[in-house]
# Entry
Amino acid sequence: MRGINLSPSGWRAIIAKEFTFDNILFLAQAIADYLKQQGQTQGVVIGYDCRFLSDEFAKYAAEVLSGNQITVFFVPVPTPTPVIAYEIVRRRASAGIMITASHNPSMYNGLKFNAPHGGSDSKEATAWITHQANTLPKSVIKRITYQQGVASGAILPIDPAKKYIEHIKTLVNMELIKEAGLSVAIDLMFGCAIEYLGNILTEAGCRIVSLHTNRDPLFGGKPPDPNEDSLQELSQLVVSSDSCLGLATDGDADRFGVIDSNGEYVSSNQMIALLVYYMLKTRGQKGGVVKTITTTHLVDAIAKKYNVSCCQTNVGFRNVAEIIRKENMLIGGEESGGLTIAGHIPEKDGILGCLLTTEMLASNQKSIRDILQGLYEEFGYFFTKRMDICLSKEEVDALSKTLQHHPPKRFGDLQVTRIENNKFFMEDGSWILIRQSATEPLIRIYAEAASKEKLHKLIETGMEFIRKKGERKDDQNQ
# Structure
């Protein structure tokens, strides 16, 4: 095996270890074989992010696709994943390839394969491509040079920015933002949103101060993930510039992060709840809500009040997007910063998340802290937290066996009342979920409770359970 493992979430691996030029050739040929087998030869949109050698990896993929007589629509500058996804739909292309490792550390790169609808392709499709990529001989790879492809018209350089921006402005109330005259600080994390977020906000009349607007394949020495730890500099800028809001997008701009006017980080769980509430109450829109099992139950409470359905899916934005695409759903989100809405692509979009947050602030004329406090007063308090833990493969295997065969019956003083997919529901309404990351070598703990004290205690007992690698040595976890 060559170490290629494409899933609906994509394939990510360390550059020069598994993520190599040879493996890109094998994977691109497997994708070409799959598309020809399916009769999907209307063209493939190929884009890439700001990572080391992403442009060259993208050209290798384009050379193989065009060598297989499949037209390539090639974006020759770093471009956000949601822009590539929108361009797939707009052009009615057969598929899309995005060279990106999203929010992973800089030593990683990756490839994401999108279906004609713009979202991730199925498990069946990616499993077939993975098997083909790991087994086909190098002699069957068909390839022409990038220059030959451009000269012959097999590779068509394109600029999708204008059409995407035109579309995104139809989803956001630009006039409302313009009337508010907001001051906004943005952190683009050396990523793909450099030519997008700031320009759109400036057009909407916002006064912008920016961080990390240059391309840096090392991302300043930190993973380009808009979480609380990574946004400390943005927090300081919001306060020092007297901005009412701080916004950030990750490396490929499919996730977003938010800082309030006082410099406090607003979690993705809080933001999803705030935007669901804003769209149902203030915008007065109708339609259901989709969320992953790791997302706050505050969303459930809001949906219940407004008499709309709230559908829960397994982790992975593909699951959220699939329901939005097929059913009458207004908004879908996940606790890791992914979001989309009806009328947009079935793919998470951090640029859209930032713009909707700005519109919400413009409409309310309050700080996010004050809007959130109103939510808590109406629906009760929901405190959430996620912890990531590195374990060895042996430890992960031992933990998985314990969760499957001997799941805990208590967490501290709390009795487990039911279990769904390693999500443990407690008698007081709190919950804790333990899962292995699909894209990183981590075990994740998610928890929610009605107070910070209860949440801290729940996380501590969950961490203790994991540290023991699932061994049943303590009655408190029985």
